[in-house]
Amino acid sequence: MAEITTQGGGTGSNQQTRSVIIVGSVIIVALVGVIVALALNLNRGAAPVSSEEELPPQRSVVVNEDNLDEVLNEIERAEPVQAGYYEARMSTIWTFPNGDSVSPDAYVENVPNNTHDVYFDVLLGDAEETIYESPVIPRGAHLDNIKLDRSLAAGSYDAVIVYHLVDEQQRTISTLRMAITLVVES
Fold first, then answer.
1. How many domains, the chain?
2. Which of 30, 52, 57, 162 has CA 20 to 30 A from 90's CA?
3. What is the pTM of this model?
């Protein structure tokens, strides 16, 4: 009896298997290439930070009643203030007997360790309406007996004080924002 064999029987399935393996390998190599190219592209703009380089300064922290003690402790442990930075010494709750009076407890000091003169604006609420503009405070000087430029009705107000560090021509070098509370008693 004769045995019938076809040439495509075993060989054809081997060729299909090899084709699938080759196509799969090409796809895997292509994916690896794309991943490597994307990784190189993402890192192209970022320079590596070595231990010898200075890291950028941290952003300023808004000071409020919840973190006041922590910030004051950090200030006390800090070295003298670097150029372009500002050490704030101030009261954070300003009380006014009425909307047109002077506050007996509002206090802002430009400490002698600072490197620049400063002035500040007090902004009211989310609208950030300016309700007080200070004069320039030289290093080592302070400002108290503050009266707002705009009268406020009785109540408690969230406000922001924006310090402007200025150069010799009184141009702003940098700013610092801090939260304060204004209390108008009557």
1. 1
2. 57
3. 0.56
